[in-house]
User: What shape does this take?
Amino acid sequence: MLQFASSSFDASVWEMFTILLGGGTLYLVSRDIINNLNEFARFMSENQITIALLPPTYLAGIEPDRLPTLKKLVTGGSAITKELVTRWKDRVEYMNAYGPSESSVIATTWTYREEDMGYPSVPIGKPIANTRIYIMDTHQKLLPLGAAGEMCIAGDGLARGYLHRPELTAEKFVVNPYEAGEKLYRTGDLVRWLPDGTIEFLGRIDDQVKIRGFRIELGEIEAQLQKHPLVREVAVIAREDKQGEKYLAAYFTAEGEPGADELREQLMQELPDYMVPSSFMQLDDMPMTPSGKIDRKALPEPEWQGSDHTVSSPRNDVDLKIQKVWQEILGMESIGIDEHFFRLGGNSIKAIQVVSRLALDFEVGINDIFQYPTIRALGDNIKYSKDRLKQFVFALREAAASGENGVSSVVWKMRESLKEYRKKNQGYENIDLSERADYRNILLVGGTGYLGIHILFQLLQNTEYKVYVPVRGTSDGEAMERLWAKLKFHFGLELDGENAWEDRVCVFCGDLTQDCFGLSRERYEDLAGSIDAIINSAANVKHFGHYSEFQAVNVEGNERLIKFAGTGKKKTYNFVSTTSVGSGWIEDQSSIMFTEYDCNVEQSSDNYYVMTKLEAEKEIVRARQQGLDSNVFRVGNLVFDSNSGIFQENISDNAFYSLVKSMITLGRLPAIQDKTMNFSFVDEVAKAVVLLFDRKNLINETYHLFNSHQVSMISFAKLLKQADINVKSMPVEDFTEYMFEKYDEPETEQEIARILVHSNVFFEGASKTLFMTMNKKTDGILQALGFEWSRLDGQKVKLMMDHVKKVGFM
Assistant: This one.
């Protein structure tokens, strides 16, 4: 047997005593030989070595035929890839070992089995003799199959603690709540039980980082990268750019040269965009620690990837201006006009900063950066506009200053339409709302989304239905884990085998963007034969991006669900849309009343989310004519849970919250009298959906679900002060003048840029057509069902602000 590990590394204990106590021969090898693969291979062959424990990172550089005498191979010290196992499985008896020094080197082992290669990663196996494994949550409760938690080790091999470090010993070696008088070692490793009792290693608990408000598990990104057939070793870390902002950098070794574009595209198919690294760097070899693990601290600074074009200089003044802005925002000294913004470290936040600078001189929007990501393409597609900022600020001032008299005059013009609207609503006054549809099984799509998870909670709390929830993932177990993590975040629910709701939630791995949701045909048809109704709350709700990304979920996903509704058992389709489909502009029309009876009123919008939601609604209207039973729920501006103040996890991605944050950071709000701020509490919107979707006598309806108690900016400023938030309410003219004066100052530039980019949230009149969105029909039905919207008050604002402070958003 080979002694690969140095005597200062715990693996050497296993190497020495297992072979010597068994009567074998131990061969010691020098570092010089280990550091030369040719010499290492010669040493192994000359000494007829049959057993070796090697780090995966070292083994990755050796071809199996170079070690012909090796019979038993053990890997340990870091995660292994399927590719590595596949290379060696036919040549040796392959074993993967896991264990920290605190449990006497090895705690679990896995011996190669072909059936295990279907798991997302290679398992670390089962506990060895005299060792017990507990997978626990943060409250030391045992977790069921598929749920991720911390690995805790008990047994005869456990250390007593750390020498002369009583505080660390007390933290890591804790009382075993399930075995009197025994200690547990908390490893800090994130793992989960697989169905056959083996254990899957998911990463380190402390490998989570927070970037742009998102909590990111680095191990999840690494696992996805390792699925590429050419990639061997992977490390993803968080770094800081020259502006002090964190970003993700990926490093890899590979057979051949998989391009950064190829790897980026692969990740974008499986992960949200905020988990896709900004930089990809291929290395000849990973830097290693003496113990054979990747030395993350020694990973080099990224070399930013541009395009495959020859680096070209600016062609004109427009290119020069764009280049200057990119170089300042991205912190780079030189950028060619064919370099790709997002391959240079750009992201949506930096895109906003770029647009805010360019908006001084050009007509440009955030989506232009996504559509034209090079200086050449952007320069060819934006228009110069003299005094652009002045024009924009003046337009906002005019829109905001129109005041209540402007709204009143519009109402007066629409008085005949209002009469007709009220007359239509009278038809719902005598409908029997007590009858419920005979449903048993509900398919909830988008169940891990912000509104979707609240709809699931309401279904579980207020109905007896069984709910089927497709969730993207690599396995049903991972899908279940993701869903219950959301339930825990928002409601404190645990997946502990004791929750009565667990039997009513069927979570499975499914993807709305795939045919048959990524299921086998047989499983798809079985599902189609058992589901009674669909609730689709899935959506790409980002404010910026490529149109194709929005189309894939909002349009094509909708089409797949319409098809599913007509497959097997006939199902009612409930589609969650947005009141923003009633926005934008209509040619030669200054204002319009938009009601639950309207859909396509020839409106246009440059917002991809709104465009694709409207397209989905049009498709539903066409499908109704072919016999589809459906309801459309247009929801308003979703805010926090009215009881807890908790908001969506990716809070920094929300335009409304970003606007509020920017104004609070500036300490100033415009004194707008119109009640244009809409706070639709997510728990109440979800409750309204569940109240309405199964009413037997309400089919093929459209509802407007938003809080009728709207708030003015002046009132909101007063409520903020009650929550001890120091803000100044100032006249609109003064506020816009302040923005104009402070626009290019470093302390205020970013906040003012956000306000201008997202200004349509408050300044509805900034669009060419004023839409008056009505909800009297919907409110009348909800009131008949005993539902009332809550008013925003000081206590609720305090809950809101307490949460944003708790999660570090402000």
